[in-house]
Structures are given as structure tokens and as C-alpha cells.
Amino acid sequence: MPNLLLKTVYRKLNSLRPKDRNKKINILLAVSGGADSIAMLHSVFISNKKLNYDISVITVNHNIRAEEETFGDAQFVFEFCKSLASVTHLIFLFHT
């Protein structure tokens, strides 16, 4: 991942830190399973090693595409988050 992207993500996340360093920061990321949202999640994960924020991920199944395709996206997000081992909450929303 490009160094400039990681530096930018870290700087933006660090700007969220309150003056009271003991306060815990919670971040909610919307992740579709596409390349851009996975890159975002990975960048936040790498930056978060120094920041130690609580990261929650939400993914939404709009049921626009075939069921096995959208379930595959949700499964991929789940497995990717599991591999990072630093996601506090993983939320799945399914539209019917």
C-alpha cells in the first residue's frame, strides 16, 4: 500500500483523538467487500496499530444481485475482518 495513503489515513485518524488521551475512540467503517472499501479497512487497520481505536465494521446486503454473489461479499468481509483480529464489532444488515 502506498506510503502516502497510509500517512494520510494515520494523520486523519489521529486528528480525531480527543485531548483526554484516556478516552476510547470508536470508528464505524462501512465495508462493501469491494476493492476500495477493503483498501480503506486495511489502511485503517495498519494506522490503528499505533492509535488503538475500537473499530466496528458494517456491511449491508441490499439484495440487488444474486443471493450467492451478495452472500459471498458478506462472507469475504467477515473473513477479512477475522484475519485482522482487531475488529471490535462486525454488523451485517440484510434487506429483504
Features:
22% strand; three-stranded parallel beta sheet; 96 residues; alpha/beta; Rossmann fold; elongated; 3 helices
TL;DR?
The protein is 49% helix and 22% strand. The chain has 96 residues and is of the alpha/beta class. Strands 1-2-3 form a three-stranded parallel β-sheet, with helices on one face.
Indicate the proportion of strand residues.
15-25%
Low-confidence stretches: none
Give the helix/strand class: alpha/beta
> Briefly, what CATH class?
Alpha Beta
Rg result:
15 Å
Order of helices and strands: HEHEHE
Major sheet characteristics:
3 strands, parallel
Strand order of the largest sheet: 1-2-3
**CATH homology superfamily:** HUPs
Number of domains: 1
The level of helicity is 40-55%
- Count helical runs: 3
Oligomer: single chain
CATH architectural name = 3-Layer(aba) Sandwich
Q: What's the overall average pLDDT, rounded? A: 83
Q: What fold name goes in the CATH topology slot?
A: Rossmann fold
Could you tell me how far the N terminus lies from the C terminus, measured between alpha carbons in angstroms?
A: 36 Å
The coarse silhouette is: elongated
Number of strands: 3
